[in-house]
Specification:
5-stranded parallel sheet; single chain; alpha/beta
């Protein structure tokens, strides 16, 4: 069984693990701490960086650099372990006492510190919450009418004896940005008011924005500004140096190459470079990189022999960093693997793009190469070779990429059997309902994977339902119909298909299905010619009613050409019908983000004499100003193309 180690996302522990050259930074920090004068007051250093920027790793490197200094005592305090107000106070001072005891600090200090801690715990329920307004001395504790010393007096005693010790106590506090707001406020109360002793150095690691937000919560600072408040506490703010992106890129290449070597017999350098090109925009920190490699390792371990590893690498980046885009792909199989040109398909794809970041768009375009931002190119016939088998844009393998995504839309076998045995009207209504519930695609998947279960009633309703549903189900519908023909080579089965196509009102569904069936060996030549006649009659009817959108005319023409019925559709029309048909020869092209329209005169000449059309258009322009004005762009494109052809 193939195995590969996951990155545990833990901070590095020493310089040997330092891949980002942070050791020098940590050493400089250790030198600065060693030389700080702290005999009279505490000193607070803020190590500031975003989540994942390496704060914990730097703290570990700092401790490594300073641990052998006999003038420094290190205390690591993790406030994340405590959630109660009392336990946070109690745990901090308990840890401080234990640390000092282990380092043989004057017993008098230990005794006084224990009493001081007890006093704080006793009065913790009465401590003023608004620390921004607490001043030393802490008058609030005078409310306790005791015979022993007040908290203020106890603190003054501690200040005196701590100021003369010949060691510095460095209190390292990490994970502050994992605390809830109340706990952040309590921690700063300790640092600012309760434990701001001489010879104490606080080294705090936190995300500035998170702490600012926490201090502003519940009006903790009153009218004070959180940034000003932090500036009063943090005497030395140090921003984590940004990791060199080129260093991360080098690590990325090493890790992605390693994982490919584990799971692939052949690692293609060009694919490694392309993965880095498309995924690296999402990688800003080592933590981002480790999370991505971990997810990829998990996905590869489970799917490496079922899918294309290159496609899975790109899809995994969306799964981790752009989950909405990932779900859009998962939920739009029929739309994205469709290779047919339709305006509604373009519109739906554009809606997906509009919700994507630029790096996400680039990955979608790489995963589905037949798509551009607003256009789908001509149909792609998948070849059975290593390059296209198992690609995400191959509908046979699409679902395998989402094996670990629970899909409530999947059908049980018993549910499918119940549906396919409904009567005509009931089944048609049920298919409409499935479409409205966005479960139609899942139903088609069942029929594709179990072709023998499709009966005549199912095939008839599947043809008729295409009057009501999106065109991106065409590929799946044809596969099911074609399989039905292969399993049922009898006249009755063929007649069901012919009846459905005669009654279908979806011109593009008819053209597509008939065009594809024209290539199959499962039908006789006579049957194919019958279906072509059905297509021709449908086309004539739609043209006469002007039911084909002008923007879809090019697609329409590509079908009728393929069926060799185009010439029969372009004859003896009146001026308005001629204008309508001429739109089918306008080609929309996209170059470098710009859209251009071109009239394909050479294409038109398969059906019309260009001189005759030129004369007709000139007469329309002269005698029918209304028709000319409403179609002026068409006239201009024709004239431009005609003049170029004529000159050539």
């Amino acid at each position: 069984m193939i195995n590969y180690n996951y990155n545990n996302d833990l901070p590095i522990q020493n310089s040997k693990e330092d891949l980002l050259n942070r050791s020098e930074f940590a050493e400089n920090l250790a030198t600065a701490v060693t030389n700080l004068p702290t005999q009279n007051n505490s000193f607070t250093i803020g190590l500031i960086g975003e989540w994942g920027s390496g704060k914990s790793s730097i703290l570990n490197l700092f401790e490594e650099k300073i641990k052998n200094n006999d003038k420094i005592i290190i205390m690591k305090f993790n406030p994340w372990r405590f959630s109660q107000m009392d336990s946070l106070y109690n745990s901090f001072f308990t840890d401080l006492i234990i640390t000092l005891e282990r380092n043989n600090i004057n017993k008098d200090i230990i005794t006084k510190l224990k009493k001081y801690k007890d006093k704080i715990i006793l009065s913790s329920l009465h401590i003023l919450k608004d620390v921004a307004h607490v001043s030393a001395p802490l008058e609030i504790y005078k409310m306790f009418n005791k015979t022993d010393k007040t908290l203020e007096e106890q603190k003054n005693d501690l200040n005196k004896i701590l100021s003369v010790i010949n060691k510095k106590v460095v209190i390292v506090i990490d994970d502050i940005d994992r605390l809830v707001s109340k706990e952040v406020q309590q921690l700063f109360q300790i640092i600012k008011s309760l434990a701001d002793f001489p010879n104490i150095i606080y080294l705090l690691a936190f995300d500035k924005n998170y702490v600012f937000h926490a201090l502003n919560t519940n009006h903790y600072l009153g009218n004070n500004n959180s940034e000003e408040f932090i500036n009063k506490i943090i005497q030395m703010p140090i921003n984590i140096p940004q990791t060199n992106k080129e260093t991360i890129r080098i690590l990325f290449k090493e890790k992605i190459t390693t994982i490919f070597n584990y799971y692939s017999k052949i690692t293609e350098e060009r694919n490694i470079k392309k993965i880095i090109k498309y995924v690296f925009p999402f990688i800003n920190t080592i933590r981002d990189l480790n999370r991505y490699i971990n997810l990829l390792t998990f996905n590869f371990a489970s799917l490496y022999d079922k899918i294309n590893l290159y496609d899975l690498s790109l899809l995994s980046a969306l799964q981790l960093f752009e989950n909405n885009t990932y779900n859009s792909i998962k939920n739009n199989k029929d739309l994205l693997v469709n290779t047919l040109i339709y305006e509604d398909v373009k519109k739906e794809i554009s809606e997906i793009f509009n919700q994507c970041t630029t790096p996400s768009k680039n990955i979608i375009l790489e995963l589905f190469p037949h798509i551009t931002y607003n256009e789908i190119v001509n149909p792609i016939k998948y070849k059975s070779n290593k390059e296209t088998d198992r690609r995400l844009n191959n509908k046979e393998y699409f679902d395998a990429y989402f094996t670990f995504n629970l899909d409530s839309q999947k059908f049980l076998k018993s549910e499918v059997n119940k549906i396919i045995n409904l009567s005509d009207d009931e089944l048609l209504d049920k298919l409409k309902e499935l479409n409205n519930l966005q479960k139609f695609s899942s139903f088609l998947d069942n029929l594709e994977h179990n072709p023998q279960i499709a009966n005549k009633n199912v095939i008839y309703c599947l043809i008729i339902i295409n009057n009501y549903i999106n065109k991106h189900y065409l590929n799946s519908s044809f596969t099911i119909i074609n399989n039905f023909i292969k399993y049922n080579k009898d006249d009755e089965s063929y007649n069901v298909i012919k009846k459905g196509l005669n009654e279908s009102n979806s011109i593009f569904f008819n053209l597509y299905i008939i065009s594809e069936l024209n290539e199959t060996s499962s039908l006789s030549d006579n049957q194919k010619n019958e279906l072509k006649e059905i297509a021709k009659e449908k086309c004539l009817s739609e043209l006469s009613k002007f039911n084909i959108p002008q923007e879809d005319m090019h697609t329409f023409l590509s079908y009728v050409e393929h069926l060799k019925i185009a010439n029969e559709l372009y004859s003896n029309e009146d001026n308005e019908e001629l204008i309508y048909k001429l739109y089918s020869f306008i080609r929309v092209e996209h170059h470098f983000g710009e859209t251009h329209k071109k009239f394909e005169l050479k294409h038109m000449q398969r059906y019309y004499d260009k001189e005759i059309i030129k004369d007709k258009l000139e007469k329309i322009k002269k005698n029918n100003n209304k028709l000319y004005e409403s179609n002026k762009k068409l006239f201009e494109l024709f004239e431009k193309s005609y003049n170029i052809i004529y000159i050539n």
